[in-house]
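Section 3.1: Structural characterization of target chains.
Under the original work plan, the team committed to producing a structural model for every single-chain target entering the pipeline before any wet-lab resources were allocated. The record below documents one such target. The sequence was received from the expression subgroup and is listed exactly as submitted; it comprises 155 residues.
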Amino acid sequence: MPDDRPTTGAPTADEVERFAAACNAVYAAMRRNRGRTEDDATVTESQAALLEPLARGPMSVGELAEHAGLAQPTVTRTLKTLERAEIVVRARRAGDERTVQVELTPHGREVLRNTRERLRALQSAALGCFPPDQRDHVTAVLVDLARAIRDTSPR
């Protein structure tokens, strides 16, 4: 979907370099912080990303793979690990034996809740580093950045 906001021309090479360095620094800091949430966690960051869509209800392995943007065999391998840890349960869909349905167990819901809480605490601390009058602007810029990355990424 095209963006209606005006553009001001192509960025200079220097602007691109500064932007790339800033993006890389943000990405590295987020990975470090998310890794810290895994110290006492039951699931890894990539496993937690598969649990998020399941919080809304059961879905097929194919639907989950599509939602996560991952290949179905990758999702299946991860789900096997999560199933062994009793975080998810997989079963054939009633009426369609070819489709495997996945859902969170009660333990899986607790694991996801704890993971979310740890991540929110880190996010709250980071946002708290900004003065209150800048927080909405910081959030808006991040939303715009996420949209720009999504819109310019190869499909």
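The first strand starts at residue 59 and ends at 60.
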